[in-house]
Protein 1
Amino acid sequence: MPGLPVGDGNSFIMRLHIDNNPVTAQIHPALLNGSVVADANCGLIRYTNNPAADTVEIAYTASHPHGFADYTFDFRRGTTPKPPSASGQATGTFSTTLTVAALLETCTIAAFAEDLTVRGRATDGWSRLGYDAHDLAAFVLAPPKPPTP
């Protein structure tokens, strides 16, 4: 049995929100005790003789102007995933501070990789449109240089 003619109460109204703003993915330089000390070319950070007291701040920005994006932050020592790996809604700048001892565990020298991916939620109705961004960084924690004779 046919329905009522359009305009007699059986119409459908769909509201669309279109937001194709770009996303941001930026890894900030690791900070040792609050200061940038890594050589930008080599990524080497020399901690002091007190790794239990030294701290490293890991920070990154994962954002979309209106929050319509999700992020994944992968943090590894060597090839082993470690905290502060995280994921969630891309809403701004995220940071965490850990001691050098917590990062190194049983290592004396260790390499770390930071991998940030931000995926926009924009779709064409069937699949994502690929408004994405990515950043990658690495650094090495090493003890201080021994004094030269």
Protein 2
Amino acid sequence: MGRRVLRPIFFSALIFLSLVSVSFGAISNDLLRKGNERMRDKDYVQAIVYFESAHKADPYNKTVYKHLSVAYHNLAVLNSQKGELENAIRNGLSALRFDPESGIIKEQLSIFYNNLALKNADSGNYKSAKESLKKALELSPDSEVLKTNMYNILIKYAGVQLAKENYTSAVKTAKEAAVILPSTPDAYILAGNIYYQQDNFKDALEYWEKALSFNPMDEGVKKRIENLKREKAVERDFGTERKTFFKIRFDKELDSRYVGTILDILDDARRSIRNQFGFYSDTVIPVIVYDDEQFQAATAQPHWTQGVYDGKIRLRYQDISRDDANLKRVLFHEYAHAMIFIHVGGGIPIWLNEGFAQFNEPDADFTASDKVFLSDYVKKYGKFSINALDGMFEKKDDQGAIRAAYLESRLFFDYLVEKYTKYRIKRLFEELKQGKPWQKAFTEVYQVSIDRIEKNFNNYLDDLLR
């Protein structure tokens, strides 16, 4: 859905009303005159003192009301310009109390509420931001900027609730966003995502299809719907078992002791990756175990695929049940993918994603067979190239290219850790998390050109493959 931008509103013009000469008693008249002098000096606090005194002397005089309204309003604008938004709101409300029909005061007060909402949102206080924008919209119900800001804050708030597994609150907040901008698809996509994480396929499908009706060209949503329909058909009769940080769904014929082993290994993977890279999540990660036919039907992946992470860890029973070492390797690998997605996002090159996942596999040795294969592949197709790696992963029907891509990614990741330490890898992930192109992030973190590091690694690889 992309980064949602919240828009501040600025309205800095001060209102000065002409002070009409009136006769309603010497005391009130003198107070009003003194207040007017303070207004000309922009001493709004002292002006309010005089005007409030005049109001006490003649509480029903509408002219005094107008002067109080102007003074409070101008003080509120001054507060806002200094960043004192709470004071701006308090004084703006006082201005509105003395002139409740003023459209300008209502508009300005709504702006104060809006900018306070953005301030709260920046500090992660989305609940307060939502309440401030609600008040802003009561004052300026037709403002498209306010509606957009409310929509974006609700989307962010729902995301925070989802991360904490407050599914009921998250989906409620997403639906509130949909009411604000009913023709904008993001809220429907988010609601569908929340239902999907709860394995509520019916409602997930309903909301994704609604999102697609507003943006029929969204290939991502089309793919989610397609995958969900396949998954729904396969998993209709699956059982569920849950541990603290994982929820596993499986064919009921699968040995329950085997399910327990999977959960224990995932706990080990969680501890290992947390200790090495500081990546962990308290969110429950869904894990689904299929037989061979079910896996193919649910994922449409090539036959050689042993596991997939697409928001859920998906495993093929026939592959991971060969022995405990293979099961451990696959589970660590897919959990590593989950951590990359959660902590860095999807905008990283495939080679880095796969290199990280393989690095975290326990006892993943570079075997003699691997050495012979890669040596022959390099001689036939040329030296290692970072920019060519992702393209090699796309050759789904070329198992030789796929195997070479995995091996080169793994060895290159190992090389980066060995030569430059894990600290640099962590910095690279942080830069990528900010949305930088990987080439730019890479050269900034490693202080070396892509061409130079390729040359250095190819020298390293030549020595390794001799």
